[in-house]
Amino acid sequence: xxxxxxxxxxxxxxxxxxxxxxxxxxxxxxxxxxxxxxxxxxxxxxxxxxxxxxxxxxxxxxxxxxxxxxxxxxxxxxxxxxxxxxxxxxxxxxxxxxxxxxxxxxxxxxxxxxxxxxxxxxxxxxxxxxxxxxxxxxxxxxxxxxxxxxxxxxxxxxxxxxxxxxxxxxxxxxxxxxxxxxxxxxxxxxxxxxxxxxxxxxxxxxxxxxxxxxxxxxxxxxxxxxxxxxxxxxxxxxxxxxxxxxxxxxxxxxxxxxxxxxxxxxxxxxxxxxxxxxxxxxxxxxxxxxxxxxxxxxxxxxxxxxxxxxxxxxxxxxxx
Length: 320
Ligand code: HEC
What we know:
four-stranded antiparallel β-sheet, alpha+beta, flat, two-stranded antiparallel ribbon, binds heme C, about 325 residues
């Protein structure tokens, strides 16, 4: 009876988990179609995708977001996107050297007269930061601080899927409407979003009547951002859309970068690549860990079988 109850509860739990998964919709971050290659027991990074992701980070995100925990040499380390077995020491890897040298950094060491010169980065240098400090970063971004992206996939629920969903989740530009109104003799410019046309929201889409969302100045609506849209929703507050506002506008447009490997740079592709790059940055040893982990499990499995038989053999003549 007890076993039966335990079984029933576990089955019910599984069913609920399935439902929650199926209800993915716009609220919960979701992986791209086909999932992530690095998932599962044996999953590994798609090296070409991580390489392209670095290009997206460098050409799009790096103008606002730092990655202070990374050095250029990490790109050429084993498990890294530009690892070359011919150069076990990434500091010698000419490609990594060239990638580093594309960035001009303030030398961390003063020159003979005590000044800090600008110089091309070397593999030993940390990634170039776009701003000298947080205050300067805020000043350039309307008061909001673009978070450091070194371990962002570990810092947000949903990891890579969250980054992917966030980057691809913004409404299309066609849904934005500029409104000019007069308030107390002053002209007020606002941007509203026609939520009734926002098909990506899926089941959360409003079903009846016009439903507009007012976007605060300097803020952008995103269904995956944590927040509350009720105060800005011109519709039934009980059906306010999921998500919230953030100070980062949509960053990816088709063809935003020109991939050096010839891959077509669609919004989806760039989001996949940069999310995978950021996952690698936060978990660079995934490959080695999974390889060792699997070998350990197999070893322990064999050991268990051997121990079982030796136990049987040793206690064979003892009554118990
Ligand atoms: C023009 C500057 C700018 C660029 C370019 C930019 N961002 Fe942002 N980003 C911001 C700002 C500002 C915030 C903080 C928003 C806030 O807290 O309201 C932010 C926040 C984020 C967040 C955190 C969202 C959260 O959950 O808090 C992530 C993740 C992110 N950006 C990823 C990216 C990626 C990936 C790229 C490149 C494809 C990128 N950003 C390009 C300015 C930028």
